[in-house]
Amino acid sequence: MISFSFLSCIAPRRGPLKAYSKALDIVRTKPFDAIIVPGTPFRNSSWDTIMKARVIWSWVLYKEGVTKNVIYSGGAVYSPYKEAVIMGLYAQQLGIPTEHIFYDTQARHSTENIFYSYLLARKLGFKSLALATDPFQSSLLGSFLRRRFGSPIYRLPFVVDTLAAYNSVNPKIDPQPAHEEHFISITANESFFKRFRGTTGRGIDWTPYENGQLPPL
Predict the structure, then answer these.
(1) pLDDT tens across 132-158, in order?
(2) Where are the domains of the chain?
(3) I need a surface site. Which of 66, 121, 200, 201 has the fewest CB within 10 A?
(4) CATH of region 31-212, choose from 3.40.50.620, 1.25.40.10, 3.40.50.300, 2.60.40.10
(5) What are 159-182's pLDDT values in tens digits?
(6) Residue ranges with strand state E in 117-186
(7) Cα dist. 181→36, 107, 134, 145 in Å?
(8) Residue 15 has pLDDT above 60, yes or no
């Protein structure tokens, strides 16, 4: 059961409000099949504030019935830990069942987080998707979401003030299952400009897809 009182009290402020409201209209009918949660580097044996916020937000959306499943996305990019797996380990500690957690470990850039997660969702038979991340990244990816996918990907940006209630939540994990043995940092084999191209989605090979757009889910 979706808690609409909860949803009404977490609407984002002005910037992402329109995107959030559109997604809210969808879940009034039924939950999303999955949300996509982009990764961020895992360093110093602990999640940073960005990863913590994204994972907790995904957990809140799951436990409130907004989504049935969660796709965590991100490989070992800037540190020797697969970002998706690290987030999944934290999510399990928070209470998301393992059977409702899925992983993309290929993505190295934010646009690839969406690209590979969409392909995974299509393979799994999911029909409705939303991006659950911070408002800044959500806004940056808005145009990419509209242009490149045959099915809509809605946006569920979080609000920092809402997440403040979970500041004391700090589960412990063993990061070893996420460790990449033969790790090479992206900075060692991609220049700044190549990384920038990847961020804009120009590192993805779109030629197999008609009009440079992935087919519908």
Answers:
(1) 999 889 989 999 999 999 999 999 998
(2) 31-212
(3) 200
(4) 3.40.50.620
(5) 777 788 898 999 999 999 999 999
(6) 129-131, 153-155
(7) 26, 17, 30, 33
(8) no
CA distances from 109 to 17, 36, 94, 203 (A): 25, 14, 26, 9
Dist CA 210 CA 161 (whole Å): 42
Q: Please, are residues 147 and 141 in contact by the beta-carbon 8 Å criterion? A: no
CA-to-CA separations, 138 to 24, 122, 131, 173, 182, in angstroms, rounded = 15, 21, 7, 27, 32
Structure confidence at residue 9 (pLDDT) = 43
Stronger pLDDT, 17 or 207, i.e. the higher one: 207
CA angle centred on 91, ends 144 and 181, rounded to 5°: 80
Q: Scanning the structure block, which residue is given the tokens 């996305």?
A: 73
> What six digits make up the tokens of 207?
């030629």
CA dist 217 and 215 (Å) reads 7
The answer to whether the beta carbons of residues 54 and 48 sit under 8 Å apart is no
Average pLDDT over residues 111-128: 97
pLDDT at 190: 82
How is residue 146 written in tokens? 């509209």
Q: What distance in Å separates the CA atoms of residue 67 and residue 58, rounded to the nearest whole number?
A: 9
Q: What angle do CA 116, 130, 162 make, to 5 degrees?
A: 125
Distance from C-alpha of 81 to C-alpha of 174, rounded to nearest angstrom: 11
